[in-house]
Design a protein that fits this description.
Elements: H1 2-11, H2 13-24, H3 43-58, E1 62-66, E2 70-75, E3 81-87, E4 107-109, E5 112-114, H4 122-138, E6 144-150, H5 158-166, E7 172-175, E8 178-179, E9 183-186, E10 188-197, E11 204-210, E12 222-229, H6 236-247, E13 251-257, E14 260-266, H7 281-295, H8 301-310, E15 324-325, E16 328-329, E17 331-340, E18 343-352, H9 358-369, E19 375-383, E20 386-387, H10 393-406, E21 413-415, E22 427-429, E23 432-433, E24 447-449, H11 450-469
Length: 471
């Protein structure tokens, strides 16, 4: 039977590639600001949802559009439901960073599909759909198999909240949105914002900030700051130049008019779950500002907070917390630096080890912020960790399937990312990034190797086969 499943997927290889490329062409960035009737996340997300639902229907599946929030593709009978949960929304992409092709112009080079969503998560979703087709074409199942498709994963997960209000929750399942061999734990997440009222009465004033509206779950690649300085400040350009050279940052500055300087910081974007793979443009700009303010004896509590508590390792530990467990260490991504009217704000995305309570992190921030007169701290966008023990039958089955099919002997792993697996009980993330492969989620020139894509589809077919047999 398993050989038949794999042959079915090989037979449909051309279709799989073609449909992934067609989905990549749709710039499905989830935008509630562009919502229309029955399109809560905008026209492009709706187009992506309709595309895959029409594909599912043409392949002989039952489909349902759930009020534009999400949808599903299903076959089989019975009360028990196996869920495969993926998403079609993607993070924005800066065309100038891409070298092989443009983000929404898929291209096959060196047996890889390039384009935004290739690995996160359009490629794996299509692989899962054709895994379902292989099962449907070759055997009768004892349960219903449902591919659940979300459109707001990169932001607020409103699609999954809506799904759970309207539809059946799977009894067991997986999300093809992370790494093989299998994910048994995902860190907790909390977005933290520290802010202060900014009176603009200093000798050097932050007039404007622009960080390209960077997403909280992305390491920022660009940030610029317009400074206004009073005539008492001497040799500011020379000072900035010396500080930049000392830190060896990719930062440029220019005098744009009398008593005005613009500083531009350039970084490398990556997923906030892997801040070490990127270079944080905002954090480096804040470092420069901290040293400028120190040089000219200017007080700014928000920048002082950064310099004291975050500057030492803004990609890792913070606030004298040294938290680490089997899921890794606490990481922090400085994602936002904004000036909104008279409020100056820094926004951070933290990935918290599974045995550290989010409340502990909150209290530590409150404690540190209380040392300052004008700083406030707020929290939002938090998610508790997900933990399905390695001994759990689901984890064991999926890990064994991967190992058998790739001739490996790997154990399930923990990650800092957040997948739809944590939206449902008895669900884990499972592929499609292969062990040892660079994680290209949210990065320029995102791609998936076609060989890995086809192997993933075969793995998913075998996973469905084994889960269907599970009593």
């Amino acid at each position: 039977m398993k050989k038949k499943l794999e042959k079915n997927i090989e037979k449909n290889k051309k279709e799989i590639i073609e449909n992934i490329c067609n989905l990549i062409k749709i710039p499905s960035i989830s935008e509630e600001s562009k919502a229309q009737e029955k399109m809560p996340f905008g026209k492009e997300c709706n187009e992506a949802l309709n595309y895959i639902l029409n594909l599912g229907e043409n392949l002989g599946f039952k489909t349902k559009n759930i009020d534009g929030y999400c949808g599903y593709i299903e076959f089989g009978e019975g009360e028990e439901l196996i869920g495969i949960v993926g998403h079609l929304d993607v993070v924005p992409a800066e065309e100038s960073d891409w070298k092989v092709t443009k983000p929404f112009e898929p291209k096959i080079v060196d047996n890889k599909i390039y384009g935004r969503g290739a690995i996160d998560d359009k490629g794996p979703v299509i692989a899962s759909l054709y895994a379902m087709k292989a099962i449907k074409d070759n055997m009768k199942v004892n349960k219903r198999i449902r591919l659940i498709i979300g459109l707001n994963e990169e932001k607020d997960w409103k699609c999954m909240k809506y799904y759970k209000e309207k539809e059946q929750v799977p009894n067991i399942g997986f999300s093809p949105d992370a790494d093989f061999p299998c994910i048994y734990a995902e860190k907790g997440i909390i977005n933290t914002f520290i802010e202060m009222k900014y009176n603009k009465c200093e000798n050097i004033i932050i007039e404007e900030l622009n960080c390209n509206n960077n997403a909280m779950n992305v390491v920022p690649k660009y940030c610029e700051c317009k400074l206004k300085y009073k005539s008492e400040i001497k040799n500011l350009e020379e000072t900035i130049n010396e500080i930049i050279k000392k830190n060896n940052y990719n930062i440029k500055y220019e005098k744009i008019e009398k008593n005005y300087i613009k500083i531009k910081s350039y970084g490398i974007s990556s997923h906030a779950a892997h801040p070490d793979l990127g270079k944080n443009a905002i954090a480096e700009l804040l470092t420069i500002l901290a040293e400028i303010y120190k040089k000219y004896n200017i007080s700014n509590e928000l920048i002082e907070f950064f310099n004291k508590n975050l500057k030492k390792d803004y990609n890792g530990n913070l606030l004298e917390i040294n938290k680490k467990d089997e899921s890794g260490e606490l990481t922090l991504n400085i994602a936002r630096f904004d000036l909104e009217e008279d409020i100056l704000k820094i926004g951070m995305n933290l990935r918290v080890p599974i045995y550290t309570k989010l409340e502990f992190i909150k209290e530590k921030f409150k404690e540190k912020c209380s040392e300052y007169n004008n700083i406030k701290v707020k929290f939002g966008g938090e998610m508790e960790h997900q933990l399905v023990p390695k001994e759990n039958v689901l984890v064991k089955i999926l890990t064994q399937i991967f190992n058998d099919m790739t001739n490996n002997n790997l154990e399930a792993i923990a990650i800092g990312g957040a997948t739809y697996a944590r939206a449902f009980p008895n669900c884990v993330s499972f592929g499609a990034n292969m062990p040892g492969e660079k994680d290209l989620c949210h990065q320029a020139d995102e791609n998936i190797k076609i060989d890995n894509l086809i192997i993933s589809a075969k793995i998913y077919a075998n996973a469905i086969y084994e889960l269907d047999k599970l009593k």
